């Protein structure tokens, strides 16, 4: 049993002031794999005080030195890649190969992109040729509370920490209590990078405790949160009294529009993307909208592809999917699968219960529903499991209407060989991101949504912009 009961505050590992023990459960075995401490208000206050004390000095640190610190973090992160991969695989169920490549790799990607973006960022720049004595200064927001989820832990931690740090902010990280071990390794990485005490602090806790304390704390200037829409709403309410900045990256219910002229790999790509990370991604293409003329073929293809997706323990190497994170998520997914059947959707792959051969572990059968209508529960609620809903459309206009008929607006997808159509759809789909024909977004592309998928953007220069204040100065003297 791993014991990680300390917090990282003011440059040192310290015992909790008001901690209580919390078991971390391995979702592949349903057994405890570690014990951490959940902090109390005294721990939150100590971490915020350390960040507040460190803020003036870190804000005044030349940007070149802040970039150099990020480069040290990048090097230390790569050196600890295997430790991070093993931790994430055990605590949240990502298969070890996927954990090494995608979960750890996401952090490498984001840190590298922040280093490049920071070197090109207009930290102090002229307003324009018409106003030679005006300057626009980008400076730190202040003390930032960073509240991160369990599903892509290093992806979200590096997106927040990298941008906040290079922008001159100090911070308190509260990772998910479901996946805290990788975050504690990340704190060791930050320690190895030799930052001034108090710039980075980590306190473990749950949302109702440390999360709400940070969200309402008068000395916290900004909250950056990734997680459920429900929790994002509560954080916004808690932050309102102090008028702090709130950045939210929340849920999604992405539509994947498959037209008759889609390429031959489009359906396979859509199913595998949906099943990646066991469906536990806010940007998952969970609604496949299919043009009527190819609907029957696509349903058959999607079902066959889902049947080929294998399930296995996270510790085993290979291209399978692992368990979902915990028992409550498993029960929620099972309930939604049953709801899909009850409301009349046609089950063409998977279904309720564990996959064959499993009698423990939070494993879910890769599931596909056909003949789904957009008023069904499975078409509207974020399932956060390996469950795909297939809907039919007759015209492009109907596809747009169905795709946009959701409270969410994170990512939509388009599969078509018609370039003019793709561009039309990209302009009218109501989401922060649109990905077409399987082409991934480029380095530094902004990640984020609209509507109930949140606000703000993460990644590259867009991510840095979210962690700075804009100061307008007149009467600037030539230097």
Give a quick set of tags describing it.
479 residues; alpha/beta; seven-stranded mixed beta sheet; six-stranded mixed beta sheet
The rounded distance between the terminal residues' Cα atoms is 60 Å
Q: What percent strand?
A: 15-25%
Q: Widest sheet: strand order?
A: 15-16-17-14-13-18-19
- Structural class estimated from helices and strands: alpha/beta
Shape: globular
Oligomer: single chain
Biggest sheet record: 7 strands, mixed
Continuous helix count: 15
Percent helix range: 25-40%
Which stretches are poorly predicted, pLDDT < 50 over at least 5 residues? none
Mean pLDDT score:
98
**Radius of gyration of CA atoms, rounded to a whole number:** 23 Å
**Based on DSSP secondary structure assignment, what is the total number of beta strands?**
21
Short recap of the structure:
With about 475 residues, the chain is an alpha/beta fold. Helix content is about 40%, strand content about 20%. The strands form five sheets. Strands 15-16-17-14-13-18-19 form a seven-stranded mixed beta sheet, sandwiched between helices.
Task: Please tell me about this protein's structure.
This protein has helices at 41-60, 63-79, 81-92, 96-120, 153-166, 181-192, 207-216, 229-240, 266-275, 295-308, 327-342, 377-380, 396-404, 419-428, 460-465, and strands at residues 2-4, 7-9, 12-14, 20-26, 31-38, 124-126, 135-140, 143-147, 170-174, 200-202, 222-226, 245-249, 255-258, 287-291, 346-349, 367-370, 387-393, 411-415, 433-436, 454-455, 468-473. With 479 residues, it is α/β, with parallel strands linked by helices. The strands form five sheets. It has a seven-stranded mixed beta sheet, with helices on both faces. Strands 10-9-8-11-12-20 form a six-stranded mixed beta sheet, sandwiched between helices. Strand 16, helix 12 (377-380) and strand 17 (387-393) form a beta-alpha-beta unit. Helix 3 (81-92) crosses helix 4, helix 3 (81-92) packs antiparallel against helix 6 and helix 7 packs across helix 8 (229-240). The longest helix has 25 residues, at 96-120.
């Amino acid at each position: 049993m791993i014991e990680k009961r300390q917090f990282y505050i003011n440059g040192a590992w310290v015992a909790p002031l008001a901690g209580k023990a919390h078991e971390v459960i391995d979702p592949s075995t349903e057994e405890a794999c570690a014990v951490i401490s959940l902090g109390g208000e005294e721990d939150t206050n100590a971490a915020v005080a350390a960040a507040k004390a460190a803020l003036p000095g870190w804000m005044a640190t030349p940007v070149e030195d802040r970039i150099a610190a990020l480069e040290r973090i990048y090097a230390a992160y790569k050196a600890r890649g295997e430790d991070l991969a093993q931790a994430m695989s055990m605590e949240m169920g990502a298969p070890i190969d996927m954990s090494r490549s995608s979960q750890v790799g996401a952090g490498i990607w984001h840190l590298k992109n922040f280093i490049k973006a920071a070197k090109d960022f207009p930290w102090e720049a002229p307003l324009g040729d018409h106003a030679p004595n005006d300057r626009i200064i980008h400076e730190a927001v202040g003390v930032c509370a960073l509240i991160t989820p369990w599903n892509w832990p290093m992806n979200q931690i590096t997106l927040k920490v990298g941008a906040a740090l290079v922008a001159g902010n100090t911070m308190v990280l509260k990772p998910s209590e479901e996946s805290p071990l990788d975050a504690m390794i990340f704190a060791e990485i930050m320690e190895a990078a030799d930052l001034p005490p108090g710039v980075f602090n980590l306190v473990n806790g749950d949302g109702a405790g440390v999360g709400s304390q940070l969200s309402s704390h008068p000395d916290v200037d900004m909250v950056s949160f990734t997680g459920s829409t429900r929790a994002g709403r509560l954080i916004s309410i808690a932050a309102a009294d102090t008028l702090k900045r709130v950045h939210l990256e929340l849920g999604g219910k992405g539509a994947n529009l498959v037209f008759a002229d889609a390429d031959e790999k489009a359906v396979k790509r859509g199913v595998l993307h949906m099943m990646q990370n066991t469906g536990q991604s806010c940007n998952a293409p969970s609604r496949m909208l299919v043009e009527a003329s190819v609907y029957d073929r696509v349903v058959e293809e999607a079902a066959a592809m889902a049947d080929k997706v294998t399930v296995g323990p996270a510790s085993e190497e290979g291209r399978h999917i692992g368990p979902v994170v915990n028992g409550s998520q498993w029960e929620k997914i099972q309930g939604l699968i049953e709801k899909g059947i009850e409301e009349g959707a046609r089950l063409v792959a998977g279904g309720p219960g564990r996959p064959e051969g499993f009698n423990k572990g939070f494993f879910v059968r890769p599931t596909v529903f056909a003949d789904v209508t957009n008023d069904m529960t499975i078409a509207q609620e974020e399932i956060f499991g390996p469950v795909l809903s297939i809907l039919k459309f007759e015209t492009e206009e109907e596809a747009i209407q169905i795709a946009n008929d959701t409270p969410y607006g994170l990512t939509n997808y388009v599969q078509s060989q018609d370039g003019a159509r793709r561009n039309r759809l990209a302009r009218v789909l109501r989401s922060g991101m649109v990905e077409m024909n399987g082409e991934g977004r480029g380095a530094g592309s902004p990640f984020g949504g609209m509507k109930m998928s949140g606000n703000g953007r993460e990644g590259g220069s867009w991510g840095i912009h979210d962690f700075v204040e804009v100061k307008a100065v007149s009467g600037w003297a030539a230097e």
